[in-house]
């Protein structure tokens, strides 16, 4: 890295200027996109689009809870380990730094169903020491790496923390108050006082329901543990003197598959003790599943973790680059989804810049200041076959930073001088500066241009894409491109179910696009890859909580919307596109596939776009 720069015209944004060794990137075979090479002069994006961001893997915090890696910040207290080899104990440590980078991604799947996405360089602790996600037994890539059957050391699979439902609150209050009093612990008492107003003057919550659901049972486990539980020397126990309370506690443990022993104290009757079995992994699962309020009772300091092992089922290359996260800690490691993972060595060698894909993705921008020169040298190689190069496939080449660094004119010139076809996807109005250049080079090489514009509602646009040009500004950019004699496609993506997919919203958008002179429209509904899914879900829960159940149903089977929705959207979109002359009756076979491009009659064809450019 050459230097880091902050400029007053970019409030809150830091530019990290780096010298790249290569900027011409080969697209993995089988990716399905209509181009083979990409150039991305920037990493990170000051557009701050909500659905551009990658989420995180759960990390074990020092209070025993879990938090997504993308949400960590320097100063946070988490758990690391101390010890040698696989014989380790949990110790509190501090996050010293937090970052992200775009790297080829791999999915690591374990025998218990746990799945985590990591770079090939990342290392996990195994029964035989640290091993990378990928590697080879021979040649330059030789290094210890994970294979099927490798045993990973950790604390066991994390359980999802309970939803803060009315049932959970009733169960917590019953577990704590049924015996007639508050816990002496301030954290538990504060939680109970917070929950009580939900029930008004009623005290019905102290009664155990005839058939309690899992929400109620999670709350009951937490409330009774806060009142009468303990966790010392690796033993989690609850002791109580009411038989029905103990029986209800055991029934909840049974429902969640816990093993335990129940003993009666013969000296101090009636008094029963229930002790959890299964070791650290089950104790961890109890804390995550029930979420007790009292911090010191759930402290894991000094917990021995070497005995808990899970096996690698598979390591799969995803075939794409994703923003991948890492942190620096005081111990040099941390617990990611129950596995001991090492700080990434690449930070120290500066092979990538250390930024997270949450706020840092918006405010910490990597600038490959030598990208035009490196690209020109790569294009001069005899082996270069002048294949189509796409720009805008990971981050926007015409984000606001381009106004400062002016890398794109030299990149466009280098491609054109070498006879290389090029295309650009952007939502940045800085592109207007280079329209004369694009018009000039288009006489010598094919030069495609596409603008991303998904909606006209400026209020929704500001909430979804803070930092991007307004819909009005992008429509004006389309108009300027057409005035310069350039064909200009529009990528209407992502279309958001129940927010921007109505016939009225799409009809109004297509009308404005036709008025601006767009030559082609491609419609893509929202898809949510792992990580982006969680990030968008938090935005949706904050901005439109009423839509959360509908989205949960739509995306219940994965990242893509079900075929039934896509067909309904296609049926809606087809006639609207024809109404505005973005197609003809001959296109009827395509309108059922919303991701298929629809050509405006009589204009030049351009390569189709993939939504991976936005997500």
Automatic annotation (TrEMBL):
Superkingdom in the source lineage: Bacteria
Q: Provide the Radical SAM core domain boundaries.
A: 330-572
* Entry-linked Pfam families: Radical_SAM
Q: Read off the PROSITE patterns from this record.
A: INTEIN_C_TER (PS50818), INTEIN_N_TER (PS50817), RADICAL_SAM (PS51918)
| UniProt keyword list | Iron, Iron-sulfur, Metal-binding
Does the keyword Transferase feature in the UniProt annotation? no
The molecular function terms in GO held by this entry are: catalytic activity; iron-sulfur cluster binding; metal ion binding
Q: Name one GO biological process term.
A: intein-mediated protein splicing
Q: Any keyword Metal-binding? A: yes
Q: Which CDD domains match?
A: Hint, Radical_SAM
| PANTHER family attached to this UniProt entry | SLR0285 PROTEIN
By what name is this protein known? Radical SAM protein
Q: Which organism is it from?
A: Amycolatopsis coloradensis
